[in-house]
Amino acid sequence: AVLDVQAACQDVTVTQELLKEGFHRDLLLKVELGVMGKDAGGCTVAARTHLPSGIYVDPYELASLQQQNLTKAVLIPAVIDVEAPEYLATGLVVLLCMERDPRCSGCFRAAVPVHGRYHRPAADSEEALVVLKSPEVLLCCCDSDLSGECWKPAEVEAPCSGKPNGPCQWYSIRHKPVYEEPILHVPVGLRQHSSLVCVVTLLVTVLCSSLILAAACKYGHFS
pTM of the full predicted structure? Predict the structure, then answer.
């Protein structure tokens, strides 16, 4: 019986994928409940993922997507400094409510736009690596009677759509670890180029300021 429970728990699989290229990507999460999915008809499935300081979700962009009913997510903390570089930022938690995948029984998916932060210049590498750990799969089944060997109670600050008129307990599901964690490659500058960058920046600033001053003197009206 113990082996059967472990097999049912391990039958739950999670995959993550970073779509697009560059600093602005989409994080796609997929959950397959396997044997458990047959009894999860009235359940709500969510994924709680911890994003490191090198990547973030724009709360204003997320609010716009929520208004269009394109995603359901909660950010912790809710206030995020989108301008901070990686070395001054902190990690955050994203709680994503997942939608059923009509092409697969017991499958759920969700996507959220993420953005890479600027990193410190490096000494010997032109890119920094941001590794995304496997998310925590959460299940809320207010109207279903499922075996509880595969999960443990979890504290989640989000309502459960299975029981909108009252409280409902969320559970964290045991699942297979992600075999390949997605990695965001963020371009960084080289320290030996610092002097050149400073000189070029100063020259461009002086040139642009001179052009603006010349245009103001030529076309401006001074009393």
Answer: 0.77
